[in-house]
Amino acid sequence: MKISSLFYTIRQGFANIFRNKWYSLASIATISACLFLFGLFYAIVANFQSIVKTAEEGISVTVFFHYEGDALNGANCSPDHVVPSDQRIEELGQMIAKRSEVSEVKFISDDEAWAKFATQSYGEVYAVGFPENPLKGENSYEVFLSDVSMQSALVTWLQSIPEVRRVNYSELTANTLSGVNLLIAYVSMGIIAILLAVSIFLISNTVAIGISVRSAEINIMKYIGATDFFVRAPFVLEGVLIGLMGAVIPLGIIYSIYNYALSYVMERFSVLSSFLKFLSVDELFGILAPVSLAVGIGIGFLGSFSTVRKHLRV
Amino acid sequence: MRSTFKAPIQPAAPQCIKAREFRRRNDDGTFAVNRTRGKRMANKVIQRKRREQMIEENGVIFLNNVNKTYSTGSPALNGITLSIGRGEFVFIVGDSGSGKSTLIKLLLRELTATSGDVYVLGNDLGRLRHRQIPKFRRSLGVVFQDFRLLNDRNVYENVAFAQRIVETPGREIRRNVPAILATVGLAGKYKAKTTQLSGGEQQRVALARALVNSPSILLADEPTGNLDPKNSWEIMKLLEEINESGTTVVVVTHNREIVNAMRKRVITMKKGVIVSDEEGGAYIDED
């Protein structure tokens, strides 16, 4: 294709939008509305997921080991239990850390455990009532998960280790969080699929109307000897431009709204900021902007290309 | 009838192609021959020679026993054999439903024949591939009864449009368009919107658009159908001038007065059949 023809195609692509301005405007507005909803939805979901992720990161599994005399203290011990040495406990810690679902392993000695518990329960005066550590031998690992849905697998594995006496975990919290995550994923996929389908339909309609409005011109082009590409390219470009404009407008609106909403929430409900961490506008747009642009251009291209192939047999 | 079909032409040997054209120098000073490009070029030369030979022997338009039946089952053309030589001026006349428009559509390769051969400028239209059609159509100019101008553009843009489609460089467009507008007598109206022009002027713009790419054949489908007698005569005079400059002109018309006055070759069609083909002929009455 010659440079002059390329410029002609680009000019025609823009001209098509203006020639067919009301339909183009309607398409841009509807795609903008779809992508605005998509952006809004994404902003909510991304923030929700970020909050869930933060909550997940706080979930841990605590592993206790057998120690000399634990059976006497009434712990639930099997007769074939093994009391690990300090070196073995260290090895076990490394084995746990190596597992893929584990993000962090923290060793808590019996003294640290008692100090923490006693401070929380009795305050500074605990030493008076308990001259000795009542949790002696209760060394443990606090295991943090990278994927909360893998908690039960990890717990089963931990319980199969003969040196492990007890595993503390909250099945309900893990299941709830992974369930919420799954629900969000399904709902977002469903809504995004519907929005994309609606947008493709709209662009396809606009281009089809453009083709019917310009059927006389296309007819003349055919008789004069225009190639398929020359006839089709301006329509495809029109679709891509509509998609691009339909993506840029909602991005601009969401950018301003999100910034405003974030500062409003932080000011009015400052108590929330201590336990809810919202995404910054840059973090949000790091994914939302390229995805929206790609989706806008993509549906513009797909919608117009399929319509041109269907309605424009040159 | 004027012509009979000549035997199919054998391909000419590609002796005219010099191997030198497809060589490229290697780094060590030796030469490598681009055989693929050579073969492609050789094929192009063979095809061009075939077309030239076809035109020489059978004319720029040649139909051999052509039948066209639409999917509804109604026959539109029935055993048409016809030859039009280079530089001829031919009227095709006949009542509605006689097959004139189908014939024009076959020549434009808008339709393909149900059976028989259609050759235009040596191209076998039955064998023409879809991607070859645009290039083929660039050698034809077409004018319609309803002008088919782009009413959102001015006169200049309407004509330049045809050049842009065939990817003519901008510099040449700026030179060619005013020249062709002067030829059709519209030099002073290049800025006017087509809706501001009279019917005759609009048909001149359509003519300028058809001619600007220098076609070998001009097909005019009822070019005076929407014009008054004065404008009709002016358009016919223009067509005659175009023909005198070497372009083959085929005019489909109902205009009895013009056909009878111009004394050109007249092909009369009736119910898909050529009933008369006369040099210096006249419009034959139905009765």
Q: How is the secondary structure organized here?
A:
The complex is a heterodimer of chains A (314) and B (287).
Chain A: H1 3-19, H2 21-58, E1 60-65, H3 86-98, E2 102-108, H4 110-122, H5 126-129, E3 140-145, H6 151-159, E4 164-168, H7 171-213, H8 215-224, H9 228-268, H10 281-311
Antiparallel strand pairs in A: 1-3, 1-4, 2-3
Helix pairs in contact in A: 1-2, 1-9, 2-7, 2-9, 2-10, 7-9, 7-10, 9-10
Chain B: E1 23-25, E2 31-33, H1 35-58, E3 61-69, E4 75-84, E5 89-93, H2 100-107, E6 115-120, E7 123-124, H3 133-137, E8 140-144, H4 155-165, H5 170-183, H6 199-211, E9 217-221, H7 229-244, E10 248-253, H8 256-262, E11 265-270, E12 273-278
As residue ranges, the low-confidence spans of chain B are 1-5, 7-16
Strand content of chain A is 5-15%
Average pLDDT confidence of chain B is 86
How does the overall form of chain B come out from the CA principal axes? globular
Radius of gyration of chain B: 21 Å
Count of helix runs of chain A: 10
Q: Quote the average pLDDT of chain A.
A: 80
Count of DSSP H/I helices of chain B: 8
The largest pleated sheet of chain A is described as: 4 strands, antiparallel
Number of strands of chain B: 12
Provide a brief overview of the structure.
Chain A is α+β, with helices and mostly antiparallel strands. Chain A has helices spanning 3-19, 21-58, 86-98, 110-122, 126-129, 151-159, 171-213, 215-224, 228-268, 281-311; strands at 60-65, 102-108, 140-145, 164-168.
Explain what this protein looks like in three dimensions.
The complex is a heterodimer of chains A (314) and B (287). A four-stranded antiparallel sheet of chain A has the order 2-3-1-4. Chain A has ten helices and four strands; from the N terminus they run ααβαβααβαβαααα. The mean pLDDT of chain A is 80. In chain A, helix 7 crosses helix 10. With 314 residues, chain A is of the alpha+beta class. Chain B contains eight helices and twelve strands. Chain B is α/β, with parallel strands linked by helices and 287 residues long. In chain B, strand 9, helix 7 and strand 10 form a beta-alpha-beta unit. Classes of the chains: A alpha+beta (314), B alpha/beta (287). Chains A and B meet through helix 1 and helix 8 of A and helix 3 and helix 4 of B.
